[in-house]
Structure formats: C-alpha cells, structure tokens
Amino acid sequence: MPVVSAVHGLTFRQDYFKDSVAWAALVALLHDTFGIDVSIQDRFGGPDPTSMPFAYFDENGTCVANFSAFSMPMMIDGRLVKAAGFQSGAVRPQRRGRRLYSDLMRRTFNWCDAQGFELGLLLTDKPALYEPYGFQILPQRQFSGLPPAAAQSTGSSRRLSLDDPADLALVKRRLCERTPVSSIFAVAAQAEMFLLNSCFDTGIRLSYLDQPEVVVAWKSGEADFFRLLDVAGKTIPPLSVILAALDQRPSGVEVCLPPDRLDWQGTPEPFPSSTSLIGQRRCCGSSAAARHAFADGRILTLISRYGAAAAGVSLAST
Fold this sequence. Notes:
By secondary structure, the protein is an alpha+beta fold. It has helices at residues 20-34, 100-115, 165-176, 191-200, 239-245, 288-294, 298-306, and strands at residues 3-7, 10-14, 52-57, 63-71, 74-76, 79-81, 83-91, 119-124, 136-138, 141-145, 157-159, 185-187, 205-210, 213-220, 225-233, 252-255, 267-270, 276-281. 24% of the residues lie in helices and 31% in strands.
C-alpha cells in the first residue's frame, strides 16, 4: 500500500510507481544524476512490479531523493536464496548533506527485513557509502580459456531486437521460464533488469537459439574473444553448442558466470569493472533451513569463494 508522510518540509512516499507523475519524477532524477533514461521500461510493461521505491518529493512534485529495493531470487551453491537488489539511489545536489539518503536506506532495509529477504546485492562505484550498513565488497570474476572442441550445430540462431515486439515477447517468455544459468551463483529470476541492462549496453548482442530454445546474451570481444554474459531458457546448452549455433570460432572465451552448467572449464580471474559488487546479509529468511544455512554469514562467504561478473546482465547498479 502506498505510504505518504511529511518530513522536513518534504513529502515522503513509498510504493508510488502506480502514480505516473511520481514515476516520471523519478525518471527525471535518475536522468539528471546518472544520464540514464529508465523510462525505457515503459516499453517493456512498466517498472518491475516487485520493486519498492522510497523517496522524498518537494512541493513542486520534484523527486529529490530515492532508494529502491526489488526482488531478485538467487541460486547460490545449489540453494534458492530470497535476495533483494537495490537500485535507483540518488539525491539531488542541493538536497545533499541532510541525511535524506541514509533515512531512505534505513526505511528500505527495514522493509526488506519485514519481507524476509536473506541477502541484499548492489553494484556501485561508491562502496564505502554502504559499508556502515553492513555491506562488504564481493569479488567479481570471469572465467577465461580456450574454446571447447567444436560441436556440430543441430539448430539455427538469429539476432534479436528489443525494438521488435515479437522478439521482445520471446525474450520475456524465455526469462520467465529460465533455469538459473549456474547452480553456484546466478540470478534465478529477474526479467526487468535483464531487459534494461541489455538496452543500456549497446555492445550486448541477444541471439535466439532454436535448439534448445534459449536466449543468449553475448559480446564479441577484442583479439577474437567471445564473451558469454547470460543464457535464458528452460535448459542450459553446453558452451560448444552455443558457439556452434552462433557460428562463432573464437581464439579464446570469457564467461561472466560460473561455467558449471556449460560443460566447459575456464580459469577464474578478476573481472575488470568500474563498479563494485557489494553484499549485505539480511537478518534471516523465513524458513528454518535458511536461518541454519545463512545466519552465520556463510552466504557471503559462498559468494566470495565463487564470485562472478555480477551474475550476467540481471544485476542493477546505482
């Protein structure tokens, strides 16, 4: 239920995305702060329905500060973890220094605890800002090596465009029915951020493989390298099948996720990135199994052990 209250001459609002004027005000805040246009989500059906925004608005309806949480179930070490992602954190320059952001984070984290989230994840270029709230930097790794032995292609592939309504519908179907691309560390369900990040990064190619029916997010890197970002579908094909279907014969491969389901092994190495993946262990999950497994902090230890390049293209940054 939407929450509205007055604080320090500003109006605090929670769960306001059904208000198109307030949503447009957040779009303006993020554009002015980061130079990004999140209104592109309107093409995909609107903001993530699991998202819970917390914000302050001034008397003119301008969004002056925001911080949002959204549901992002993760597969970690074979266990489905109830995780939250955080995004859209911003404060207008003239409103900074008034602890608005810390207040919004406090409200957001309290809401996450009430919802029973076990883990919080965030990509940021300011990790120190979140350390007082229990976040710690987690390693980001990619897996590199020679390509697997060539496989005989049993199907075909084609490029997809999110500007094409039929292609967009196909991608959304594959995302909704996806199997986590790794049993070690992977996003289990999060269609909206996959779509948004695929639009923001123009270097990402989306291709559809008809056997099996999967969407592959990938890049063609420097020095004839193939970079695999994500695979969405009911089954995860071996890397050799993916390369054959895409008609790719690279000299090397970089995989931005643990390759345990790709029938291929690579050498883990640090993933070069201008942003840090940070994690925050929430109080506990709702189940006894979750409390036993993660109450001692092992969830962050597991992520630190395996790492990944932000689990493909489905994590959000702020």
